[in-house]
Amino acid sequence: MDFLDALQQYRPRDAQERADQAVMLDCLARFSDVYERSNLLCHVTASAWITNESRDRVLMIYHKIYDSWAWTGGHADGEHDLLSVALREAAEETGLSSVRAASDRLLSIETLTVNPHIRRGVFVPAHLHLNGTYLLIADDSAPLRIKADENSAVQWFTPDAAIAACSEPWMRPVYQRLNERMKSF
Fold first, then answer.
1. CA 107 – CA 109 distance, rounded (Å)
2. Separation CA 120–CA 97 (nearest Å)
3. Which of 6, 28, 45, 57 has the maximal Cβ count within 10 Å?
4. What is the pLDDT of residues 113-147, one digit of tens each?
């Protein structure tokens, strides 16, 4: 499903999501290049909250840029179907050969600030990620591998341990919300 359609159909569950949905819809209406990272103000990204069948474990990567345990995800890079992006990034960043969506619906939405940083020798200015998150299911006994240019570890955690492992305080409430929602999604 096209992200704009998914975002318009999405029903925010709290003030943060109502505000983020308004910002995202505004950016999608204003910028023709919002699906490309060449838009230096804001661009669309997709993330995955990967869980096992019983939903008692979640898969995290140790992200090199953020120096923290984090969800998987990446830039849309022109793709309008963010579920496809979330599935592709999950496989690339974890080495999972089989991962599937729990649903084609968004689990959550977030407008995330990204601090300036160097990526592959190039300066990237501060900007916004207009992010759609999907719940993905994977076998927690399947082999994992790191993606050396992006992460240095891949590991299953209990949902609470995943939050505790995250060293980005602003992301802990996001992960807490994802943990709560995955139980009934």
1. 7
2. 26
3. 45
4. 999 988 889 999 999 999 999 999 999 999 999 99
Q: Give Cβ neighbours of residue 14 (< 8 Å, ≥ 6 apart).
A: none
Q: What is the pLDDT of residues 147-157, one digit of tens each?
A: 999 999 999 99
Q: Are 107 and 55 in contact (CB under 8 A)?
A: no
Cα angle 182-4-49, degrees, rounded to a multiple of 5:
20
Q: How many of the other CB atoms lie within 10 Å of CB of 9? A: 10
> For residues 132 and 109, is the Cβ–Cβ distance under 8 A?
yes
| Token pair listed for 1 | 């499903």
Spatial separation of the C-alpha atoms in residues 80 and 62, rounded to whole Å: 27
**pTM tops 0.90:** yes
